[in-house]
Amino acid sequence: MKRAIDQLVQEINQKRRELDDLFQSVPSERWLEPLDSGGWNLKDTVAHIDWFEKEVTPVLQTHRFSGSDLWNLPPDERNHQIYRLNQHRSLDEVIAEAAETFGRFIDAVAALDDEDLQDSTRFVDMPPEWKPIQLIAVNSSIHYEEHIAVIKNWLNK
Q: Which residues share a beta bridge with 64?
């Protein structure tokens, strides 16, 4: 019988490949074009996804729920602050860091036990009503799906 953690890793990797394939399909000269009226481009999207994976990775590694003060902000304001933190970085730097971060993130997920996915008490300071699997999915595969939809919409215009 397949372990739940192995299935989760497979699902995350599959959705990440879909996102990466979509990124690869965009000609380099279009990477800095705005995706929508908000002004974000593909570089900003990669940096945004990277921030969430960087935040979740130490939670999974240490089994301690903690992170940036940006989590205390409403989502739109948090996303704006993440944008501001990364807007002056080069595309190459953002892409390289994102690849490295994803490697650490998926390794941290793979190192969990099946029991870790369902039991918030296995993570110090995690709200008891939370399920760690939801924290992982919202900050990976579900998050990728949201951005895949935005990028596909932009490409189809």
A: 124
Q: 9 Cβ partners below 8 Å, 6+ apart?
A: 106, 109, 110
Distance in angstroms (rounded) separating the CA atoms of residues 91 and 44: 9
Q: For residues 65 and 124, is the Cβ–Cβ distance under 8 A?
A: yes
Which amino acid appears at position 12 of this protein? I
Share of the chain above pLDDT 90, in %: 94
pLDDT in tens, 133-150: 999 999 999 999 999 999
The pTM for the full model equals: 0.94
Helix or strand or coil: residue 96? helix
- Using an 8 Å Cβ cutoff, are 94 and 46 in contact? yes
Which phi and psi (to 5°) does residue 35 adopt?
-80, -30
Residue 104: HSE in the Cβ half-sphere, 13 Å Cα cutoff: 18
